[in-house]
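TASK: fixed-backbone design
INPUT:
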């Protein structure tokens, strides 16, 4: 029996199998929850009756087929006449609910996108609400012509005729049942999906796209675990730097290590205590991950039939102990060590010997292992000092004047307080900088060289590359006292899907005015990843709604300097509720689905939607084969002249143009062409000429207009 299902047999064997024996096999695999047991008994009975006409045909029935990327199982997959029927049962349900329909189409889409043996097969999702009324509907494929059909609704009585109708109207392709069940599964999970899967104790290999990417991640994870064990055994201190090609899974390694090393605490009396913690300076990402993990924990407990599930507040507290914002961690440390640091002093003069790490002071709760994502974006000394002078995230509760360290130095210092052992793991990326005051990787190594030379430094052999040179990385590495280079700290294989790699290439061609290359890439890309252009925001919204299937998420995104979109009801000053925007369902007005609240590059960096509308304002304009950069202040657009600020602005659009997994629409408004009695534009900040050249340039690279 395949490991990725609970039960799998030919239709003939299933019909002859004893229902009680089938039930026992399912229970042996999936537990003994009363509700699940009752549902399985009903499903077996329904299907043994409905499939009698096909006793003599070649076919396969599979119960509880695993969808690793989603961390869920399909109730039943039926392989018959070259068709994949995905069946989701809702026992006792009297209505066909939208959420249930989304669930079954999600399963079908997952098989189509990521399951190798389902690529060319027609896939028909069926929702069986056992006590619902008959529902007459036309069997139709989607507008994508990918042989994924819209969900079919059925009850117990109509299921036999529903299956007969599908087999009569859908033309199948030959399926090798054995190969289908052990098919190569090549998912490209979002960071939210990956975190949920790993938090539920699934294996990282299940959510990697290829064997090569799985092997690469496994090697890096194992090396990091080895370093942790060596450091623990010797009561030492170590810092590791993990690099990787774009999309290689650096964040996945960080989450994998954090959750793996934390496992011994999962079932303890103090589940919030952690040995390892994953941290990021990306505030929206942290909030969304924390909320998603907490929500998923409660959902899993309910699905497992637990009588008493974790309270929402407790689940969020537990998730927050595993995934934290760097600023929260830093300021939590400052609160704990406030007295010994600034007692009797006007200026801060931190002395690690004066701050005792003892249980009496409460420091024992802190982790041995800190994992910092996007470590190159740590703040320099001046930015951190300014932040803490103003009170940081805690406002007026704790203002620290004249803070003497960069963020990297303080974080190493805080881990160095431990009297036993500590490990810091820095996940290092390059490009897409959108913040001022970022110090670069050189700042971390400089901190080691200047203040903590006894720390062991493990580096990827790629860390000397020019992509990581900010902060004089190469020069600082040459001064390290205890250096351990190792190629296993570099992730060399991208996990990204073929179309995501193509999208990144296309965006680079567009931003660098490589028109012919952009046109060629667009032609190759858009057969599976539509990109369209419009000047009408309502057309753009309609396009999003028409293209999203199942629970596929869509939303509008803009530059943080897109200040003149207010006439389109887009106000960048209105801060979105990031948790609801990314996680809430269609009924929540704060969700991305409502297309009212709009995310900026700061909200969405590190996260993704399935479909996006990028609304392009006058802050970045095309003019004579170059970009001009602008910021709106008071009543007019002003030029941005600082080269670094110009780079940040182009990076903002690079982020926006690479946030969609399935496709995007770009909307460049027409502006306001109305004039007053004197012939002057009524609104000079939205003159058509501000937008026209950008629109014409995007047309010239081949983007289809709608």
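OUTPUT:
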């Amino acid at each position: 029996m395949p490991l990725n299902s609970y039960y799998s047999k030919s239709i003939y064997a299933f019909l002859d199998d004893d229902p009680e024996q089938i039930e026992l096999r399912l229970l042996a695999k999936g537990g003994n929850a009363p509700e699940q047991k009752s549902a399985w008994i009903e499903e077996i009975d329904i299907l043994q009756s409905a499939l009698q006409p096909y006793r003599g045909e070649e076919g396969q029935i599979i119960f509880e087929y695993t969808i690793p990327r989603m961390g869920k199982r399909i109730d039943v997959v039926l392989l018959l006449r070259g068709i994949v029927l995905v069946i989701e049962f809702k026992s006792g349900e009297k209505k066909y609910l939208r959420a249930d329909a989304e669930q079954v189409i999600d399963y079908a889409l997952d098989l189509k996108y990521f399951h190798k043996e389902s690529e060319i097969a027609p896939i028909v999702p069926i929702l069986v609400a056992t006590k619902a009324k008959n529902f007459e509907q036309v069997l139709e494929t989607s507008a994508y012509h990918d042989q994924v059909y819209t969900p079919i609704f059925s009850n117990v009585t109509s299921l036999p005729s529903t299956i007969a109708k599908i087999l009569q109207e859908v033309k199948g392709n030959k399926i090798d049942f054995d190969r289908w069940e052990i098919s190569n599964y090549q998912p490209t999970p979002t960071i939210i999906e990956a975190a949920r899967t790993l938090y539920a104790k699934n294996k990282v290999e299940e959510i990697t796209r290829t064997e090569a990417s799985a092997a690469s991640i496994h090697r890096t994870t194992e090396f990091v675990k080895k370093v942790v064990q060596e450091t623990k055994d010797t009561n030492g201190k170590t810092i590791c730097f993990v690099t990787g090609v774009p999309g290689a899974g650096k964040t996945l390694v960080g989450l994998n290590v954090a959750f793996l090393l934390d496992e011994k605490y999962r079932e303890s009396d103090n589940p919030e205590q952690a040995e390892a913690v994953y941290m990021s300076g990306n505030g929206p990402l942290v909030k969304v991950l924390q909320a998603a993990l907490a929500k998923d924990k409660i959902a899993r407990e309910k699905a497992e039939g637990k009588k008493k599930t974790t309270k929402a507040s407790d689940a969020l507290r537990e998730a927050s102990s595993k995934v934290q914002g760097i600023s929260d961690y830093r300021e939590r440390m400052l609160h704990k060590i406030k007295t010994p640091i600034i007692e009797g002093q006007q200026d801060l003069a931190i002395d690690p010997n004066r701050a005792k790490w003892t249980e009496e002071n409460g420091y024992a709760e802190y982790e041995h292992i800190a994992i910092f994502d996007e470590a190159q974006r740590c703040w320099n000394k001046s930015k951190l000092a300014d932040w803490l002078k103003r009170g940081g995230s805690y406002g007026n509760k704790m203002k620290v004047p004249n803070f003497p360290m960069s963020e990297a130095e303080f974080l190493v210092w805080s881990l160095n307080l431990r009297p036993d052992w500590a490990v810091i793991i820095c996940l290092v990326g390059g490009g897409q900088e959108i913040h001022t005051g970022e110090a670069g990787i050189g700042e971390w190594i400089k901190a080691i060289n200047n203040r903590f030379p006894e720390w062991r430094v493990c580096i990827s052999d790629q860390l000397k590359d020019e992509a990581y040179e900010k902060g004089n990385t190469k020069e600082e590495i040459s001064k390290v006292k205890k250096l351990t280079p190792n190629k296993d700290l570099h992730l060399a294989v991208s996990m990204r899907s073929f179309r995501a790699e193509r999208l990144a290439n296309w965006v680079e061609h567009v931003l660098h005015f490589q028109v012919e290359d952009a046109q060629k890439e667009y032609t190759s890309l858009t057969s599976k990843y539509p990109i369209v252009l419009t000047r009408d925001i309502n057309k753009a919204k309609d396009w999003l709604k028409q293209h999203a299937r199942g629970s596929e998420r869509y939303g509008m995104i803009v530059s943080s300097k897109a200040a003149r979109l207010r006439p389109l009801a887009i106000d960048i000053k209105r801060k979105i509720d990031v948790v609801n925007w990314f996680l809430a369902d269609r009924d929540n007005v704060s969700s991305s689905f409502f297309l009212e609240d709009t995310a900026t590059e700061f909200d969405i960096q590190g996260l993704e939607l399935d479909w996006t509308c990028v609304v392009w304002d006058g802050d970045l304009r095309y003019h004579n084969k170059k970009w001009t950069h602008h910021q709106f202040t008071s009543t007019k657009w002003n030029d941005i002249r600082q080269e670094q600020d110009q780079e940040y602005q182009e990076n903002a659009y690079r982020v926006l143009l690479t946030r969609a997994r399935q496709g995007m629409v770009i909307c460049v408004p027409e502006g306001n062409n109305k004039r007053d009695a004197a012939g002057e534009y009524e609104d000079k900040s939205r003159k058509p000429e501000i937008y026209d050249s950008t629109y014409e340039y995007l047309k010239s690279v081949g983007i289809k207009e709608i």
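COMMENT: Residues 582 and 592 are 6 Å apart (CA to CA).
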